[in-house]
Specification:
single chain; about 800 residues; 5-stranded mixed barrel; 12 strands; elongated
Length: about 800
């Protein structure tokens, strides 16, 4: 590229300063929507801060394990919901064995996901494992299963939290749905504020619940050993009706209907192990070494759940409390009431337990909010979901995924009336399907890689896969009529939708990739015509004409479509009176008033020779509010849509903002003019004495103690060292060679660093912190350093 140093400026020439960090012209104010978002969520976070948003093990346990740990509060109750009506008091002798059976499944899942985390530390869990071992199409089955499970996690957790609240305050029973919706919004808000913010919000309630649970188990088991544990053992008003299956239980438990009942109860208890996969889906959120910290957190989660689930089932079997028909008071509330007894201390401990249960259940929804957006971003990155789900938002979180999850969970809560028992049958199908696919994928992975100790891994993953598949079959069959059919229908539908989205993206990519080199190097058409479509002669039209002149076309015409002859005559007269003869005004007859069709015909006539490029400019009036916009038609949008379909026809809107009325210069000055005015103002400010002058007329650069010069203080022809973030990279083509241009900002200004003859330099990318040393020269009217000595920071 030609470097603008061949002729030194004259001694009286004052070179422009570096491009300031803030534009020299006033930017429009932030929108009301953005100001509200910033007030609610805090200032926007820079991408480079993502590394500092990692979680330590204590916080990660609260963020990722709250769903799994909280299930101990209702899993026992769901088992009893099935057993008590079927076998009566015999239910209390079966609840602990069923719990132990489910903990065996949990143990294999923990062992399995420990290996998954080590082999796939980049996150994605079941989705990535299935994709890498069975291909992207099969992976969509795992993705659909997990996404539905995360939606249900949010719905079940908030509904169960509401039930805990209603158990303590009966008067809130009619407001279960609004309360659940409020909890969904609250947890979504916490997640929109960012990972670390949500971790701080959720850490204290999680540990508060754990402390309360261990206190409950400690006091309850102590009373049981001492023989002081009370026993209910009978039906109370509002409870689920007791069945009469206790007689003959010893000989019939494995036969007929009783076997089905046990399997049904086991399926309901499957809700206890949901959330096991959450940590494997969020490995990158951990502090380094990510995989090791994630594995240790997974073990802590499994151990905590096992103790609390088994302990609560044990106390419920000894106290013999049954669930209530409407879900409140909950089993855990009844156990707490009997264990702690009456009296001031007992009441304090009981309400403490209820508060802890409420908080953990509501905040367990955070597991869904932590993993749903991340998993959706993986699928969107593979082009199976809309690409908007890959974008990090204001606070470095996947905001679109969070909002989508909150909306889906809210719909479920409304449809089911926030009743946990109606949601549970939908719950475990998806998660056990993902467990099965993940472990099957890990078996294939070990058989393919055959790393040291692979035989042991195959046994663990194989047994875990078989157990998960067995539980999946039991859940699907026993809960099919209770609502599991809906999930079994929805999963293939979702997979078909994912595949259709991928096909759409593939088709678009093929269309856009064909002939790229030919299109970029195609000969330029010999003639360029610019047409400005105007309705009347006003500031918006004048601004469009002024912009059209900057395009220096071969032919420039203003076009007015005649719908009202009198108005057209007035426009023509005004055009002549204002002396606009340099721009021709075409009056085009539209007898059938098909304005859009007439516009297409006008452009098509200019294109008919096959050697003309046509640009159509449409004055675009920007209004401040919705009320202003509905007062005007959308004809310009229709013209843009139809005209742009013609080959070599290009449509551009030229905005005119009504909130700038009273500032007519804003409608006529181009951006270049305003930048020049701003630069001149800055130069004048510099001359006014902001820096001491040198004898050669330049100001002395101010440097920090470590020799770094602020970009705002850089002076032409002085050797300086600058330091800042690379905000823009540009490969500039030139005759015979290229150059790499980097724009560096340090908070006081910005300037270019130019590497001649280079296209790329390892380590230099947007966001890199760079220190550059060299002489300040002029490049494209701005200060720049050519071929500097540089250091990557």
């Amino acid at each position: 590229m030609a470097i603008d140093q061949t002729e030194a400026p004259s001694p009286t020439y004052t070179p422009p300063g570096a491009l300031p960090a803030e534009p020299p012209v006033d930017l429009p104010p932030d929108s009301v929507r953005y100001r509200v978002k910033r007030r609610m969520l805090g200032d926007a976070m820079h991408t480079e801060q993502l590394e500092h948003e990692r979680l330590g093990k204590p916080t990660a346990l609260a963020v990722f394990a709250s769903d799994n740990l909280s299930s101990s509060a209702y899993a026992t109750e769901e088992i009893l919901h099935i057993l008590v009506p079927a076998v009566g008091l015999a239910a209390f002798s079966l609840v602990v064995p069923i719990t132990v059976a489910m903990l065996v499944v949990l143990g294999f899942l923990i062992l399995s996901y420990r290996e998954t985390i080590k082999e796939y530390p980049s996150a994605g869990g079941a989705y990535v494992v299935t994709r890498d071992n069975f291909g992207p199409r099969v992976a969509q089955v795992a993705g659909a299963a997990l996404l539905t499970d995360y939606v249900l996690t949010v719905a079940v957790s908030t509904a169960a939290g509401t039930a805990a609240l209603v158990s303590a305050i009966d008067a809130l029973e009619p407001y279960r749905v609004p309360i659940s919706l409020f909890f969904i919004a609250l947890v979504a808000y916490g997640n929109l504020r960012g990972v670390r913010e949500s971790g701080r919000i959720f850490a204290v309630p999680t540990y508060f619940f754990i402390v309360n649970m261990f206190l409950l188990l400690g006091v309850g088991i102590t009373k049981f050993i001492a023989g002081d544990l009370p026993v209910v053992g009978k039906h109370l008003d509002g409870m689920t009706e007791f069945g009469h299956g206790e007689s003959g239980l010893g000989t019939g438990v494995f036969y007929g209907a009783v076997l089905f009942t046990v399997l049904h109860a086991f399926a309901s208890g499957g809700a206890a192990v949901t959330g096991v996969e959450a940590i494997s889906n969020g490995v990158p959120a951990f502090k380094k070494p990510e995989w090791r910290n994630a594995r240790q957190t997974l073990v802590m989660m499994g151990a905590g759940l096992g103790v609390m689930f088994l302990g609560l089932s044990f106390l419920a079997s000894k106290i013999q409390v049954a669930p209530y028909e409407n879900g409140t008071p909950t089993v855990i509330a009844q156990v707490g009431e009997k264990v702690y007894g009456s009296g001031p201390l007992g009441d304090i401990l009981f309400y403490s337990l209820q508060v802890g249960t409420l908080l953990i259940l509501v905040l367990a929804a955070n597991t869904g909010f932590a993993d749903f957006p991340r998993l959706a971003s993986f699928q969107a990155g593979d082009k199976f979901l809309p690409s908007q789900l890959t974008k990090r938002g204001h606070r470095l979180v996947y905001s679109n995924g969070i909002i989508a999850l909150a909306a889906a969970a809210a719909v479920l809560v409304v449809v089911t009336g926030a009743e946990v028992t109606r949601l549970i049958p939908l719950y475990a199908v998806g998660v056990f399907l993902s467990f099965t696919l993940s472990q099957a994928g890990m078996v294939k992975h070990h058989l393919r890689v055959r790393e040291p100790g692979w035989q042991r891994s195959v046994v663990i993953q194989g047994v875990g896969c078989a157990l998960s598949a067995l539980v999946l079959v039991v859940i699907a069959s026993t809960k099919f009529t209770e609502g599991a059919w809906f999930i079994l229908v929805m999963l293939p539908v979702l997979v078909l939708v994912f595949l259709r989205v991928r096909k759409q993206y593939d088709d678009e990519a093929k269309t856009l990739e064909i002939g790229v080199p030919e299109a970029t190097t195609a000969p330029i058409l010999s003639r360029h015509v610019v047409l400005v479509f105007i309705d009347k002669l006003d500031l918006a039209a004048a601004r469009a004409v002024q912009y059209a002149r900057t395009l220096t076309p071969d032919e420039l015409r203003a076009v007015h479509f005649v719908l009202d002859p009198l108005h057209a005559e007035e426009l023509s007269t005004s055009w002549a009176e204002l002396g606009l003869s340099r721009v021709a005004l075409d009056l085009v007859e539209v007898p059938d008033r098909r304005l859009t069709r007439a516009a297409v015909e006008v452009v098509a006539r200019d294109l008919s020779d096959g050697d003309t490029e046509v640009s159509v400019l449409l004055p675009d009036r920007k209004y401040r509010g919705f009320w202003h916009r509905i007062l005007h038609d959308q004809t310009a949008e229709a013209i843009e849509r139809d005209v742009s379909q013609l080959p070599h026809a290009n449509v551009t809107t030229v905005p005119f903002h009504f909130d700038m009325q009273g500032q007519p210069e804003a409608g006529f000055e181009s951006g270049r003019d305003l930048m020049r005015l701003g630069a001149a103002g800055k130069a004048a400010k510099a001359k006014s004495g902001s820096s001491p002058a040198k004898s050669d007329g330049s100001s002395a650069p101010e440097t920090s103690p470590d020799g770094i010069t602020r970009i705002a203080d850089v002076v032409w022809r002085r050797r300086v060292t600058i330091e800042g973030r690379v905000t823009t990279l540009r490969v500039q083509p030139a005759k015979g060679s290229h150059s790499l241009e980097c724009v560096i900002e340090d908070g006081t200004g910005a300037m270019s660093v130019v590497f001649s003859g280079r296209r790329r330099i390892g380590g230099i990318e947007t966001g890199t912190r760079l220190r550059a040393h060299g002489t300040a020269a002029i490049h494209k009217g701005r200060l720049a350093i050519f071929n500097p000595i540089y250091t990557l920071l």
